[in-house]
C-alpha cells in the first residue's frame, strides 16, 4: 500500500544519537550550543578550584579550638553530618552537540537540528564520526539525498568496511531507490555479522518489497533472535507470515506486539487486514478503528476502513473514509478509485464519472478505470465518451472480443452509422471467421442475418459466453429491430444473475431504463 515504507524511523535516529554511552551520573546544566572544549575544561577547573576552597574553609570552621574541652569538640548526636553532593556532569563537546540535536528532534524540529549540525564552527566537531553519522541520517530523513551522499561517500572512504557506515549507506541507497546497491551493502554487513539486527530488518524490508516473503521471514526471525521484543522485527515477521498465508503465526505476533505496546497503530492495521481475509469483518472494523484512533493521519488506514465498512454494507461510512483519505492526500489515485466504484454501485453515475476521470488524470496507467467509465457513459447515454473509453480498453486489451461490439453500438447510437460500420469492418479483419463473436459483430455491422447467430449461440457449451452473446443480440435488436425484442434477450441475461460480468449490469440497466421511458 501507499506510504508503507518509511525511509527512516525515529528508532534509527535514536540509535545514531546513542553512539556515545550514557553514564548513570546525574545530568545537570548541559552546555549551551556554542560551548567549546576549552570552555568546558575551564569550567571544570573553576569547579574543582571552588570545591577545594570550600573544603578548606569548612575544615577551618569545624576544627576544634585548643581551649575547648574534648566533650565540646565532639559533634552532637542530633546534627547528622552533611551528605556529600553528587558531582555535576561535565560534557564533552560531542556529547553537548548530541544533547542539542536530541532536544530539537524531540521538539519535532529536525530541520533546526540539521541546520545546527551543518553550521558547527569547530573543525574537530565537523570531522567527528558520530556527528557526521547523525547529520547524514537526518539529511536522509529530510530527503536531502545529495548532501547525504557527499557525507556518506566520505565516511565510506575514511572507514572502509565499517558496519555502521554500511548500514547508513544501505539506508541512503534504499531511500534513493537504488535497491540493488542497498541489498548488496546489507549482504556485505550480514557476511561479517549474520545476526546483525538492523541489517536483518532492512533486508527483510527489501525482500518484502520484491515479494520474496519466505526470505523476508527468515531475516525478521534472525532479528528477533537478537531481541525478541523488537517491534519492527515483530511487525515485519507477522506481515511476512500474512502474505505466506500462515495466519495463526501472523496473529500470534500481532497480538504479542499489541500486548507489548497497545499504542502500536501499525499492529492494529495489520490485524484488521488479517481479520478481513478470515471473514471476521466486525473484528476487522474494530481493529482499524483503533489504528485510526491512534493515528488518524495515515492514508492507508482510511483506505482499509473504507473497504471494511463497504463489505459490512455501511456505504455511508465507506464514502466518508475514502473522502477522508482524499483529504489527506488529494494527489494519490487509490481513494478516488474505491470511491468511484462505490458511487457506481449506488448508481451515482455523474459522481462516479468524476472520480474515475480524476483517477486517470493522476494515474493514466490505471486502465481498469477506462472500462468503468465506458459502462458509466453507456448508462448516461454519452455515446461519444462511451466509444472513446472502450477504444482505450481495446488498446490495452486487444484480445477482448466484447469491446468492438460495444464501440460499434456506441458509434451507431451517436448517429454515425457509417463510422459504426467502418469500425466493425476493421475489427472483423482480425477475428476468427468461425467464431461466434465474429458472427455477432458481423450482424451488428450488416444490420441483418441473426438466424445463423442464434444457432451458434445455442450450441455454446459455456453458459457465461452464451449469456454474453444474448446481451449483444439484445443490442442488435435495439439497433435495428425493436426495444421489445431487445428486452426479451436482456431478460435472459438478467435471469442468469451473473453479476460478475458487466453484460449483466448493462442488461439490467437497459430494462430499468425502458420501464422509465414507458
Describe the protein:
- The chain has 518 residues and is mainly alpha-helical.
- The protein has 29 helices and no strands.
- It has helices at residues 10-17, 37-62, 70-73, 93-106, 110-118, 123-126, 129-141, 145-158, 163-175, 179-192, 197-209, 213-226, 231-243, 247-260, 265-277, 281-294, 299-311, 315-328, 334-345, 349-362, 368-380, 383-396, 402-413, 417-428, 436-446, 451-458, 463-480, 483-496, 502-517.
Classify the secondary structure makeup into a structural class: mainly alpha
> With helices defined by DSSP (H or I, 4 residues minimum), what is the helix count?
29
**What spatial form do the alpha-carbon principal axes imply?**
elongated
Instruction: Pick out the low-confidence regions.
Output: 1-77
Report how far the terminal alpha carbons are from each other: 48 Å
Number of strands: 0
How much is the radius of gyration in Å? Answer: 36 Å
Q: What does the main sheet amount to? A: none
Note the beta-strand portion: under 5%
SSE run = HHHHHHHHHHHHHHHHHHHHHHHHHHHHH
Binned, the helix content reads over 70%
Q: What is the residue-mean pLDDT, rounded to a whole number?
A: 84
